[in-house]
Amino acid sequence: MKAFEGHQGEVIHIDEATNRRLLRIIDWHLIPIMCVVYGLNYLDKTTISYASVMGIRKDIGLVGNDYQWLGSMFYFGYLGWEYPTNRLLQRLPIGKYSACCIIAWGLVLTCFAAVKDFGGAVAIRFMLGVCEAAVTPGFALITSQWYTRKEQGTRTGIWFSFNGWAQILGGLVAYGIAVGTRKHPASIAGWKIVFLVTGLLTVAMGVVFLFIVPDNQMNARWLKKEDRILAIERIRTNNQGVGNRHFKFYQVREALLDPITWAFVFYAIIADIPNGGISNFFSQLIVSFGYTSEQSLLYGTPGGAVEVVTLILGGYLGDRFGNRIAIASLGLCLSIIGMCLIVGLPLDNLHGRLAGYYLTQASAMPFVAFLSLISSNIAGYTKKTTVAALYLIGYCVGNIIGPQTFRPKDAPRYVPAEITIICCWGVCLGIMAFIYFWSRWQNAQKAKVRAQPDYVRLENQEWLDLTDRENSEFVYTL
């Protein structure tokens, strides 16, 4: 509202050419840095998977279930700090706070190269989870702050797809280091080099993020003064404003009583049991197909390409047809088919089972779709940060459980874990159906309210920080 103080009574009109120009400027300044940082976010927490076949188990004395607990420990840190970090994202300048978290997690990751035992590794993994807890909710809030609801699905899909690019790059780098250190032994172990390279790169990108990503439209150095007003005006249709630093307890209560909140949370828990298992054990899973440890690093990279293609295509088609949930469900169906191939094909069918693993990488589509729907469909800044925190707490719980399904006694095939994954994804399809029909029903109820003869629309209600349930003008995106 302060941004419009000098424009009382003046209608601000944005023509299509101006809107495209603004969108192009915003995209070029925000999307590249968000993509690179989010790719590092995935790479940094899954570097442990590459290290697992590069000698870390022997070097720091991992035995029994130790490696499983290292996979889970990251999410204990993430879980413990998720709600506090969402409150800080609301209270503090979002760009600066996010940059500080990025730099901190890069520094923590470099410390992994100095780890000598299981206890030290546990501490580093826990702190890594604490530092990275701000990234996904922060990026979701930045996306909702700068883009219209019709643009958010595509943009979220683009920056989240860099998980896949990170898997490709990480696999190639780890393979190169593994082969290089085998042929030309280095003074430090190859897995330590991986942690140092990824950690220092993260620190550098955190510094870049600090100077590029603003806290809001009004302090964006790369926008002219008049364009800052237009950048705010173009998101008026979101009915969500651009952020509010005041904590509103009634919005927390509404979030906790809203069925859609718990549908998101239960989806995150159940869907991320498979994610937690696969992301920490994919190198060992590929080895179980009959490939060598070095081959597993290289052959895991096409899975990243599948994730990139499905996320970008899914985000675009979801916005294009106005139905992110239906499009995302196709990715989950592909993943179920892929895991069925891994379980059902003969053991000597190496290539068929590897292809099944690649199909499982489409499973991120619904998670990303729901992340974008939290940006689009949850209004009221306190409510949005609360739902985002609960969603990512569910994500943590699922990822903590996931590695525990890959029990050492089931190696090398891990059939019980694979069957658990199929069942979880089947339940997730049912949750997606509930969210779809609930949103349609809510839209119908709001349409009835707006159709009443005595209905009055509030002036400037787009900037009043109303929740989606309070605002009768709010329409849920499917």
UniProtKB/TrEMBL annotation:
Which membrane topology term applies here? Multi-pass membrane protein
Mark the transmembrane ranges.
97-115, 121-144, 156-177, 189-213, 255-277, 297-318, 325-345, 357-374, 386-402, 414-438
Q: Which InterPro entries match?
A: MFS, MFS_dom, MFS_trans_sf
Residues in domain Major facilitator superfamily (MFS) profile?
A: 30-478
> Pfam families under this entry?
MFS_1
Principal place where this protein is found? membrane
List UniProt keywords, sorted A-Z. Membrane, Transmembrane, Transmembrane helix, Transport
Localization: Membrane
Cellular component annotations (GO), alphabetically ordered:
membrane
Q: Does the keyword Nucleotidyltransferase apply?
A: no
Point out the coiled-coil segments of this chain: none
Picking any one GO molecular function of the record gives:
transmembrane transporter activity
Q: Which family does it belong to?
A: Belongs to the major facilitator superfamily. Allantoate permease family.
Q: What name does the UniProt record give this protein?
A: Major facilitator superfamily (MFS) profile domain-containing protein
Species for this entry: Baudoinia panamericana (strain UAMH 10762)
